[in-house]
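Notes on consecutive records. When two proteins share a document, each keeps its own sequence and its own token line. Never mix them. Below: protein one.
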Amino acid sequence: MWLLFTVASLLSALGTVQGFFGKSLSESPEVNMNISQMISYWGYPTEEYDVVTEDGYILGINRIPYGKKNSAYRGRRPVAFLQHGLLTSATNWISNLPNNSLAFILADAGYDVWLGNSRGNTWARRNLYFSPDSVEFWAFSFDEMAKYDLPATIDFILKKTKQEKLHYVGHSQGTTIGFIAFSTNPKLAKKIKTFYALAPVATVKYTKSLLNKLQLIPTFLFKMIFGNKIFYPHSYFNDFLATEVCNRETVNSLCSNALFIICGFDHQNLNMSRLDVYLSHNPAGTSVQNMLHWTQAVESGEFQSFNWGSPAQNILHYNQPTPPLYNLTDVKVPVAVWSGGQDWLADPQDVDMLLPQLPNLIYHKKIPPYNHLDFIWAMNAPQEVYNEIVSMMAKDK
């Protein structure tokens, strides 16, 4: 029943667009490209690097060192680091046309732009010690992304650019790991000029997304359904949706896509000609343990570490019987927030709980019609969000 309810909600959000569903669209070239190829396709310079974390994960990261509008100047530029959200990858920042993608907009505005990837996604699925075929490789959640991935990536970027600080832009889970890292690692926090949080997620007590339904599944059954490695709905899940719920090609693609089911979908503000790009690169993968961590957060209503399932296991990991809470009041970096009024994942009630806890909140804008993915793909995102980010960064170069 939870599945039918979720899909029904998705279809309701999609609405009815006469003449669109079932229409055959020509395939965008970026569908089969990697991140560097996508950047080069639009005529921008690109570099790619491997970052090795303290616990052995190898993260592919990408750089756009300068834009097309200011290519003559090759001197040192202020650094902007963009970190994607749950189930996605660095492609999120370059999936639209250049005038509508934050990474390209920042590059053209004079920034040295870096795109991060969290462990377990398409571009970060290597480890010095474990194969991605092993259970050990997937034994992580957003705890480890904050503890290991962000410090390793930020330190790598600053060393490479010979700078002391950078601008941090996070979306969704990219904000979650930012809140954790900058509250628990003061040394890292000092390297951040400003934290730009798009659709911020700390607690998910009031979320209306699929996570709200997944948290009803006991852990043992969750692992029976999804396994204990990479999270992605099994083929029978997709088959059921395709045959029993989604009867047209485009709706089928959205209904069977884990990212859209969890985060929602706003067809009215999306460039539908880019839909094949979104679908071909998302979901980019994460661990079952990470999804379990999110379902725990829904159930507890707290912003806390992964619960290992018993007091004894938690004592083994944390030296206490319950998972430690993350303290948002320890986030000392300046934080600017953009939130949505129709966000399935970062529910406005959870955002309202978050904001008063941030001791250095410098800006907040709520966009009533925005849902979770509008912050990265909406056609009017430059007017609603990106131009403001560029303007704020310009004051703190």
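Protein two starts on the next line and is unrelated to protein one.
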Amino acid sequence: MTDRRGEDIAAAVRTARRRYDSGATRPTTWRIAQLDALARLLRTNGDHIEQALWQDLRKNPTEARLTETAVVLADIAYTRRRLRRWARPRRVGLPIVLRPATARLVPEPLGVVLIIAPWNYPVQLLFAPMVGAIGAGNAVVLKPSELTPTVSAVLADLVPRYLDKDAVQVVQGGVAETTELLEQRFDHIFYTGNGRVGRVVLHAAAEHLTPVTLELGGKSPAWFDDDAHLDQVARRIAWGKFLNAGQTCVAPDYVMTTPDRVGPLTRAITRAVTDMFGADPIASPDYGRIVNAQHHARLTSYLEGADVAHGGQADPATRYLAPTLVHLPLPSPGAVGESPLLTEEIFGPILPIVPMTTPEAAIDYINAHDKPLALYVFSASRATRARFIERTSSGGVGIDVPLLQAGVEALPFGGVGASGMGSYHGRYSFETFSHRKPVVRRLHALDTLGFAMPPFTAAKRRIAARSAGVTAEPR
């Protein structure tokens, strides 16, 4: 499939809108059929998709199934079982003074939705939002990431073979094609990526007053003080951080702990890395690669002059960067020369371990920065866990485990502040891509509406005064 430019992109959007305007996407039978078709696409072509993910990211096939296709299939199953119930109008009670009348909320699709996916989980983060968009009855334009070109080409080939080829459009390409897409009129835009591009998306959407969901990232901190579970916590941190070579928006971005625990935690995470990926992770089939040379160079630049406690080996030719632990000094927020490892989203396999005197100091440090997408607390103290939950704001919190809060269909996933706006997964996806339309009917019997209509007699004024809680009769 060739990239669409200019008129071809506008034509793709027009085709999706004509299909939506025809009413074809509204019946729940169509929606369920499309969800079933997407499930068949993933199951039938699993090997092909996994090969593409290996080609672009050297993602292990088992990891690909767990973090890409299985996540989407679980969301499809969860949505399919509940879709008819979600799509039914819901009765709403009215005050007695308005009766006899009825009110209901009628879920309706928004129209044509644009979904712009990132490169780090190029299958999951393209199709998971689409589950909600299709489930809500919308037509969809998909924009896969150009930074994973093999995956993009495979999905662009498969989608029209399984799904409604008019209602679901795929547009490939890079910045020029995305810019052209953003000039079109959509009824909702769903973007997953970084804050810089998120601002561009939000600005473009404002031209058409288009609502936007932004799934961004940022610095996701972790706190550790659970000595009794040191090795278990270390293994969980290592798994959460080095999955997909650290290229996960909800990965622990840095770990704070007391100064006396920096050494033991470093040694425990080092042991966990060796257990998972061997003495030399470059030879492990389970460890991924950085997406491209530009990101590889960015990451290795962070290590210049850094206190590397473990790892740090890099091979630009194969985009390999070892799982790396870095010791940083006690930070002073906003200090000149503060390490970019504490000021920029790392999005790679580098884990800073930062000494912090107390949990309260860590909370103050978190609150002095943008609200994170995820916060992790590894503590045996119930009071410490409660303080982090109550005194910080984040998209989600993991207690004693990373990542899982982002993978539960019954929970909303999304950021707050600089880490994003809006949420999805399960019913929250359906609601994101729906408008709950109030419909009120006033029966003709016992027509008391005359009390609200001119002329306003003395009796009507007294009734209005009582209903408003006014003691004196208005003149």
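For the record: The first helix runs from residue 7 to 21.
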